[in-house]
Amino acid sequence: MSVEENKATLYRTFEEVWNKGNWSVIPEVISPDYDHGNYKGHNGYKQLVTMYRTAFPDILITIDQVIGEGQWLAYRFTAHGTFKTRFADVGPTGKIAKWSQWAFTRYKDGKVMTNLPLANILDFYQQVGVAPPVFRQEEERNKETLHRLYDEVWNKGNMSVAAELVSPEYDSYGFKGVEGYKQLVTNYRSAFPDIHYTIDQIIGEGDWLAYQITTSGTFKSKLLNIEPTGKEATWKRAFFSQYKDGKVVTAVGYMDTVEFYKQIGVPPPGYELAKKN
Predict the structure, then answer these.
(1) When you count CB atoms within 10 A of the terminal residue's CB, does the N or C end of the chain come out lower?
(2) Does residue 117 lie within any of the structural domains?
(3) Same-domain status, 254 and 201
(4) How many domains are there within the chain?
């Protein structure tokens, strides 16, 4: 078959199979010997297309340029569609995406034998609105660090692992470095010897985590300038924390301080506890 005939097959493949989902055309444009990794033969090609058309039901592919020589075509195309259902390891975002791709495709008797594609994967992930796997892996690593910090350092007082989880660059609310972080933990564990933290929810993006925790304990000794009351308290806090190389470098916290003072049985500075009638 000539280069021009192979080009006609290429255009027909995208227009009929990819854009319209016309499976009956596959045997006419795809070789039964088609081999593209895990996708083999007519059924394998259909499975490949189905994966994209399911994730992007309104997918539309436009061929931008094609050149050919012998059995091979090289081409680039633009695809766009709405990300509606799961694609590989990525959950749907509902975003309208547009991305580019190119491929070498080999033909035999006017039918596709194999594809050697290449895509700007970073652009694709940006278009669909999710972090690439390498960054998602980093987020999971950061979440593991967070869990270990609360499980081992805050709940158990195992200060020996702090250096594995806290950056020497740590800086938050005047507590600096690994030793500063350990001092922060010690302050709370001294005031609440039975202190226990439960992580309620975590969200990660890039090198940042946002999370909410529930804290409980018995107020046994002085915390900052607050005298102990012996009361059992439970309160919630929320944080944004940043990580570098799997270690926490800073954190910004938020808390309902009125509820905290109420729980420990102490009026906020400048106030008195309301008297019961």
Answers:
(1) C
(2) yes
(3) yes
(4) 2
Domain stops at, among 60, 95, 128? 128
CATH at 246: 3.10.450.50
∠ CA(257), CA(263), CA(264), 5° rounding? 95
The pairs formed by 78-81 with CB atoms below 8 angstroms and a separation of 24 or more are 79/52, 81/56, 81/57
Rounded Cα gap, residues 47 and 190, in angstroms = 60
d(CA 95, CA 81): 8
User: Is 114 within 8 Å of 34 (Cβ atoms)?
Assistant: yes
Q: What is the pLDDT along the chain (277 residues), one digit of tens a residue?
A: 899 999 999 999 999 999 999 999 999 999 999 999 889 999 999 999 999 999 999 999 999 999 999 999 999 999 999 999 988 768 899 999 999 999 999 999 999 999 998 888 888 888 888 877 666 678 888 999 999 999 999 999 999 999 999 999 999 999 999 999 999 999 999 999 999 999 999 998 888 999 999 999 999 999 988 899 999 999 999 999 999 989 999 999 998 888 888 899 988 776 665 555 5
26's enclosing H/E stretch is helix 26-29
Is residue 233 within 8 Å of residue 264, measured between CB atoms? yes
Beta-carbon count within 10 A of 124 CB: 19
Give the distance from CA 201 to its chain's centroid.
14
In Å, what is the CA distance from 164 to each residue of 135, 213, 245, 248?
A: 20, 22, 10, 10
pTM: 0.55
- What is the span of the domain harbouring residue 112? 3-128
Does 94 lie in the same domain as 17? yes
